[in-house]
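Order emerges. One example.
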Amino acid sequence: MTAQPKNPNRKTLPSGNQGSLSCPGGRYEYRKEQRREEAMARQVERNQLSAAEQLAILDMRLGTDQGAKKERTRLKKEIPNV
């Protein structure tokens, strides 16, 4: 038995995701899925960086040893000569 959609009059959105622009939450669900996909793409990109590269990015964005203390500590543990 397959699950029936809550609203049988749903329209297909551009990405192929199901949602209804006429019912409350339809646009929200579409946008939520879009944000999830963007976050996954950013995570894949970040995972390709070494710990030293990630630390350099933090320094560039926030300043040397400014902010993100826990993240800096975690990254420094991963770098052998820091």
Remarks:
- The first helix runs from residue 26 to 47.
- The mean pLDDT is 79.
